[in-house]
Amino acid sequence: MTTIPVTTPKSLIGPIVGKRARGAALAAALLCLPAVSLTSPAAAAPVPEDMVSRPAAKLQGLDKITARTSTFTIAVGETRALGSLRITLRACKENPPIETPETAAFLEVIENKPGEQAEPVFSGWMFASSPALSAMEHPIYDVWVLSCEGD
After folding, report:
1. Residue 120 neighbours by CB distance under 10 Å
2. Which of 13, 21, 93, 118 could serve as a FRET partner for 46 with CA atoms 20 to 30 Å apart?
């Protein structure tokens, strides 16, 4: 483990009281944190094994240009179109009824522009309670999970 030299600002020299004490404590705590990789939010949020698999998911899509939303149900293994996007649902899981409500869907999204080769846009888990945790980034469309469907 390498040691990082830390210099104390002149404002912290002397007795540490009030705001300076909180700032010094925060700085000391931050120096002890391990490095975090933010390259793949989907990988950072694995789905617990005790979730119940469902055969379909209810998704909502937004066309940012026209401001039109569409809600649709998609079965596991099925591919649906939303504009130039092709959305494939690989899995939909939700917590058992006795636990905190949570829905997660594994989606693969490919963009098919006319005259161009298909490009993968998103592949990973999306969570209904935290859409920003693993969001699809696209200039025209947004897609998010509402719930799982079926028994």
Report:
1. 9
2. 118
User: Residue 18: which residues within 8 A CB-CB, separation 6 or more?
Assistant: none
CA distances 115 to 3, 45, 109, 112, 142, Å, are 54, 36, 18, 9, 23
Strands 141-149 and 52-54: unpaired
The torsion angles phi and psi of 70, rounded to 5 degrees, stand at -140, 135
62-88 residue pLDDT tens: 999 999 999 999 999 999 999 999 999
Encoded tokens for 86: 């092709």
Mean pLDDT, range 15-20, rounded to an integer:
45
State both tokens at 135: 């969001």
Rounded distance between C-alpha atoms, residue 148 and residue 57, angstroms = 4
Report helix, strand or coil for 54: strand
Record the pTM: 0.66
* Candidate from 42-51, 104-113, 136-145 with smallest mean pLDDT: 42-51
DSSP string, 16-59: --THHHHHHHHHHHHHTSPP---S-HHHHSPPPTTSEEESEEEE
